[in-house]
Structures are given as C-alpha cells and as structure tokens.
Design goal:
alpha/beta, Helicase, Ruva Protein, domain 3, Dna Topoisomerase Vi A Subunit, Chain: A, domain 2, 2 domains, two-stranded antiparallel sheet, about 40% helix
Length: about 200
C-alpha cells in the first residue's frame, strides 16, 4: 500500500506499521490524521516521542518505567515493603494500581517464560527478584502473571524457586469476568472460578 504514496508518506506508513497492533489500514488512518493536522500538532507528537525516549528508563530496583533512578512506587515511603507483586510488563503495574486494592511494591519481569520463543529464566528479571528477597524484608510474593500458558509456567517456576526461601508465594485468582455468562466461559476459566470460590 505504501508504494502508492509519495516517499515521505510511504516512510511514515512503514514506521507506523512497525508499532504493535497497527496494520496497514490503521497506519493509513494515523498517517492521514497527522497529515490533516497542523504542523504544531505533528511537532508536539514528535517532541513527546523524543522526550519519552530520552527521559524514561527502567527503575533500578523493580524494572518498571521511571523518570528517576527509582519509579514512583519504589520511591514512595508509604508503600508496604513486606509485599512484592510480580508482573510481566510495566503496563500490568498500571492495571493493578487501578484496582486501588494493593499497596505493596512491584517487580516487573519484562516478559514471561516461553520455551518455544527461547525465553527462559535467564532472559527475565528473576535473578534481580531473588536478590530483593535476600534481606528478609519481604514476607509475601504476589504472582500476577497472565493466566495463559506462559504466565502459568512463569508462576510455577517462581513458586518453586521462592518458597524454599521462606517467603509466602500467592497467586492472583482468575475466573469469570463480572458481567460474563457461564455458558460462554471455557472449561479452564470456569474451573479457576470454582477453585477460587469464597464464603459469602
């Protein structure tokens, strides 16, 4: 599709298509939006991209996104330092924070174990997690990896690795979404919901 446009548009389309979840049609819509806007709007977008690349890096402790040495959660003295919630990606931290139910610290693995893709423990931030547990401050590790094959594999690996250190390892419950119908739930999801049942 890019071959039908002038070279600058083709280059823009090619770069937009490299973004996750952006196919040729979405790239075209974004490119046309940028082209229809004024130069100031395009410059603000460009500046925002350059600024985020220059000023955002991984937190030295938990590997979440940070603008300083430590992210806002690691630097917050009011957080519960006895708990660490382990997630796969920085966006998962935001998802947990939105619940308003968790006040501990985080550890971002930067992915999940996937032998098919050649991702094992050494490609993740697992060694750094174990180092964080060495001083005995952390009493509970909440594993909040995704409820898929890779996430479950990672969760089981972490449980086997961490439990011998004397740290309680818990896994977030998974099951039916609020507003969902039983008839549309797959067997694994419904089974999880039954396992995670609680008294009313």
């Amino acid at each position: 599709m890019a071959a039908y446009y002038a070279e600058p548009i083709s280059k823009l389309l090619a770069e937009l298509e490299k973004l996750p979840g952006i196919g040729p049609k979405s790239a075209q819509r974004l490119a046309f939006h940028i082209l229809k806007g004024d130069e100031e709007t395009a410059q603000r977008l460009s500046d925002a991209i350059v600024e985020v690349k220059h000023h955002i890096h991984f937190c030295a402790r938990c590997f979440n996104f940070a603008s300083d040495d430590l992210c806002e959660y690691c630097a917050d003295p009011t957080r519960d330092v006895s708990m660490i919630c382990v997630v796969e990606e920085p966006r998962d931290v935001v998802a947990v924070e939105r619940t308003g139910e968790y006040r501990g610290l985080y550890h971002v693995l930067q992915g999940a174990m996937s032998p098919i893709d050649g991702i094992g423990p050494d490609q993740l931030r697992i060694h750094e997690l174990v180092r964080r547990l060495e001083d005995g401050t952390v009493t509970e590790l909440v594993v909040a990896t995704n409820p898929n094959v890779e996430g479950e594999t990672t969760a089981l690996y972490l449980a086997r690795l961490i439990k011998p250190l004397g740290v309680r390892v818990t896994r977030i419950a998974s099951g039916l979404p609020v507003g969902g119908d039983l008839e549309y739930a797959d067997e694994v999801t419904l089974g999880r919901a039954l396992e995670a049942r609680r008294e009313m």
